[in-house]
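We emphasize that the prediction below concerns an isolated chain of 86 residues; any contacts that depend on oligomerization or on bound cofactors are therefore not represented. The input was used exactly as deposited, without trimming of termini.
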Amino acid sequence: MTSDHSRRITVELRGVEDERYADIVNAIWMQMQAVGCDFTVKPDKQADLAELDRWWDSYSQVSWEAGGRRGTPQAEKAGGHVDDQA
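Result of the prediction step, given as a token string:
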């Protein structure tokens, strides 16, 4: 595949409130960043860009150490620390 070869994925959401939409858009961006390819995520025209930013900023408020993720199976399993005996 050459670098000028573009592909497109369309995700159409129905019945999603603004906050949930912002969470989903940011999650898609994070996943694509993790994959490590050249990409663009374009929110729809209804998106409140300030709301997208607020959701992005809220992710940094989550603290494994302080228990911000307690209650999820992943957080309970991790206990806030990497298990060196894996």
